[in-house]
Amino acid sequence: MPLPSDAFRHVASRPHEPLRTFHPRRAPLSRDREESLANLWPRLGFSVHDAEHPFPTTSDGMLDTVALFGRAAPVVLEIGSGMGETTAAMAAADPDRDYLALEAHLPGIASLLGLVDAAGLTNVRVGHGDALDLVRRALAPGSLDAVHVFFPDPWPKSRHHKRRLVQPAHVELLRSRLRLGGTLHCATDWPQYAEQMRDVLAADPDLDSSGLVDRPAHRPVTKFEQRGLDLGHPVHDVIARRIR
């Protein structure tokens, strides 16, 4: 059954970690995106915070990815899937893994749902809410094959750097959910944030980090990224593998 129009609006008022790593904001939805939410959300989406639209859980309260995707397969967590172009393209090229996309903003969720439906993808599910909250509460240690953090909010003002997603405590949390050999892949077009990503991942003793590298071929260029490239913004990736 379609969700009520305000079913997604509660995220900003629910308890999160003391400092959010994203701006909780609202934006209008086009008719097509409203229809995507109404028609596709019941089958492909879940809420991190809303008990009326929960995710399936195992007996110990962890996210049941087998029930969610309908199969047992390696899982890739996308934190902040944006408008969904990258998630949909990577999932289409990688059918043997399941993509768990987490996004806080409705236009991006609706866009990704539409892309998944148009491409006939069966290996993508979309969560609404705070990805770190889901990781803490409901993702078991060693349960992820990869974590993708592409173009997170750079929080450019110095006083806001503490809100950045890629910082030691968050990296430690995400690394703990990776299997041995699993990867944490980050990308940004903010040079100072790229340096922070490089340094934080290199400092984790349980990760083997690439340092700053060019975009690998398997990560598509998003429209957002291309706009930055057209303006001369440098883009850097950092890929770290869990070694113990």
UniProtKB/TrEMBL annotation:
Pathway where it operates: tRNA modification; N(7)-methylguanine-tRNA biosynthesis
Region (Disordered): 1-30
Binding site for S-adenosyl-L-methionine: E78, E103, D130, D153
EC number in record: 2.1.1.33
Superkingdom of origin: Bacteria
Catalytic activity: guanosine(46) in tRNA + S-adenosyl-L-methionine = N(7)-methylguanosine(46) in tRNA + S-adenosyl-L-homocysteine
Keywords: Methyltransferase, S-adenosyl-L-methionine, Transferase, tRNA processing
Alphabetical list of Gene3D superfamilies matching this protein: Vaccinia Virus protein VP39
Any one GO molecular-function label of the UniProt entry: tRNA (guanine(46)-N7)-methyltransferase activity
Residues engaged in binding substrate: K157, D189, T222, K223, F224, E225
Family: Belongs to the class I-like SAM-binding methyltransferase superfamily. TrmB family.
Purpose of the protein: Catalyzes the formation of N(7)-methylguanine at position 46 (m7G46) in tRNA.
Protein's name in the database: tRNA (guanine-N(7)-)-methyltransferase
UniProt organism field: Cellulomonas edaphi
